[in-house]
Write a structure and sequence with these properties.
This protein is an all-alpha fold and about 160 residues long. It has two domains: about 35 residues; about 120 residues, no CATH class. The chain is built from seven helices and no strands. Helix 1 runs antiparallel to helix 2. The longest helix is centred in the middle third of the chain and has 21 residues. The chain starts with a helix and ends in a 27-residue tail after the last helix.
Length: about 160
């Protein structure tokens, strides 16, 4: 059974990348991929944690290990500008997902589980970025064939 799952997932990815038109790609995405809900949740959490780690200030990532100073490139765009742009992109992404009926409704069991996980993680975010305590954090669940989870600046 396990070999069948892997073969099915490979066939799905192969059909998507070898499709020559957008409609063929949509057809390839419509074919279900056999990933268990537990495996999907695991990958989502791993990606969420990796995103939170990436947003940490460099000095706190190592917990006591000396790291090189921040790059001057990091100061080219202010944190406020990045947060405003991220908020705009987030709203656009939510609107698009809602128009495609891909946004999970409030009360959806998987969304509630992700919100509970976020509630446990968020109190620790300010340790790594003091601005995080003022962010308006939101958790959204968008139905997609892609395994993907991420955090955007500004919560």
């Amino acid at each position: 059974m396990r070999a069948f799952r892997h073969a099915s997932a490979f066939r799905h990815a192969s059909a998507f990348w070898h499709a020559s038109t957008p409609s063929e790609q949509q057809d390839a995405l419509a074919e279900p991929v056999c990933l268990s809900a537990r495996r999907q949740l695991f990958f989502s959490l791993v990606l969420l944690l990796a995103s939170l780690f990436a947003l940490m200030p460099p000095g706190l990532r190592a917990d006591g290990i000396e790291l090189p100073p921040r790059s001057r490139m990091a100061d080219l765009v202010s944190a406020e500008q990045i947060e405003r742009q991220a908020a705009l992109q987030y709203e656009q992404m939510r609107d698009k997902a809602a128009s495609q009926r891909a946004l999970a409704p409030e009360g959806h069991p998987k969304l509630m589980r992700l919100q509970n996980i976020a509630k446990r993680l968020l109190p620790h975010a300010a340790r790594y970025n003091e601005r995080a305590s003022s962010w308006r954090w939101e958790v959204s669940l968008i139905g997609s064939q892609a395994l993907n989870a991420f955090a955007m600046p500004g919560g």
